[in-house]
Amino acid sequence: MLTAGVLADYAGQVTVIDRDALPAGPRPRKSLPQARHAHLLWSGGARSFERLLPGVTEEWLAAGARRIPLPTGMVTMSAQGWLRRWPKEMQFMITCSRDLLDWTVRRRVTARDNVSVLHQHEMRHLTGDARRVTGAVVRGADGTEQTLTADLVVDATGRSSQAPQWLDALGVRGIEEATVDSGLVYATRVYHAPPDASEFPLINVQSVPSARVPGQTATIVPIENDQWLVTLSGTRGGEPTRDPAAFEPFARTVRHPVVADVLAHTTPVTERVTVSRSTVNRRRYFENAHTWPDGFLAVGDSVATYNPLYGHGMSVAAQGVEALSDALDSRNPHTPGFTRDVQGAIGRTTNLPWTLATSQDILYPEAVGHRPPKGTALINSYADRLVRTAIGRAQVMEAFLAVITLSEKPAARWLHPDTAIGVLRGPGLPPLDGPPLTEQEIKTATGGSPDLTATPKATGRE
Question: Which parts of this chain are annotated as the region Disordered (predicted)?
Answer without folding.
Answer: 427-462
